Amino acid sequence: xxxxxxxxxxxxxxxxxxxxxxxxxxxxxxxxxxxxxxxxxxxxxxxxxxxxxxxxxxxxxxxxxxxxxxxxxxxxxxxxxxxxxxxxxxxxxxxxxxxxxxxxxxxxxxxxxxxxxxxxxxxxxxxxxxxxxxxxxxxxxxxxxx
Length: 146
Fold this sequence. Notes:
Radius of gyration: 38 Å
CATH class of the domain at 3-64: Alpha Beta
Number of helices: 3
Largest sheet: 3 strands, antiparallel
CATH architecture of the domain at 3-64: 2-Layer Sandwich
Helix content: 10-25%
Strand order of the largest sheet: 2-1-3
Structural class: alpha+beta
């Protein structure tokens, strides 16, 4: 079967929900994006519903080739040069970290009081009333020009 290339050329803003669903079903997600489909009656019917939003043309060989996915950039690992640690005397001892105070335990949460079915007040139902039409007000007769 022949392949066709469908490109969205008009924004979907202001389109009906049905037209938006047709664009989604065709696989068109953004403006100026293209998709390639088999030329079938189903696809033609979907295109017909959104013909004012899309441009249709025959697919070329370049359109049929899958686009290569962008490779993630690789990071170069550079080894840090080794530096000799300076010698320290007994008088120059490194500072000792103080122990961190323990965090206080979180206060226990209070239980939420909920009413049981027996404690809830029964809701009184309003009696059903028959709806009657309001009487029409009499209107003054219209004056006729002679």
